[in-house]
Amino acid sequence: MTDSLRFACTGCGKCCTGHHVPLTLAEARRWADNDGQVVVLIEAFVADGPGMPVEQRDHVLRRSYPVPCGDSEIRVSVTFAAFNPGRCRNLDDNDLCTIYDQRPLVCRIYPVEINPHIPLRPASKDCPPEAWQQGPELIHGRQLVDAGLEALVQASRQADREDIAAKVAVCQALGMTTSALKGNGFTAYLPDMGAFAAALAQEPEDDQAQWTLHVEDVPMVASLQELGLRITNEPPVYYAFIGF
């Protein structure tokens, strides 16, 4: 990444195609109310142990929640995302967003990264080269220039922190209690949206549901079991394990 970066959207619609868009809790409710499908993505780590990226310690701790796992404890991070395996359901025939004024926070922030430990790299984005050759300065001296955009980034990070307990409660209410180890993979669920909406409408309960880690690496399984963690490597039925 250079110390200076410009950006102007070309309206190509590529960022709205084939991407599952992370949603805040309130946005997930609206998505469900509008007959959209939500995908639930879960990863976990042991505080100051396996799965925790030391360089991102503060960031991952703030957006995670402690849950029981076997005789020990893990911290889970849960993402509710708009399920978009193809074109976003809100794109019109001209690749324009039909909910532009109410679009999710992450869409408003794009192409900026929300994780403070991930630099903005044009090569990792779907935008055409000309998008980075025009428009106002976006990054200067590795700092985000637009104060309004910076406020949106901070709002997204804050929502991650405020929503995590309720997201975990929804997962537990729907039996979505198998995670993967951060850095090794994640688990993905496609819940029934009627049940998902009902769980969202409930008051979160202080449920001490047992969680499980899906791990397929045999040496890693043994080391995690030594920590008293509950592990499975059985083929999943109600979720997908996406390994790295």
UniProtKB/TrEMBL annotation:
InterPro entries: Puta_zinc/iron-chelating_dom. Pfam families: CxxCxxCC. PANTHER family: PUTATIVE-RELATED, YKGJ FAMILY CYSTEINE CLUSTER PROTEIN. This is YkgJ family cysteine cluster protein.
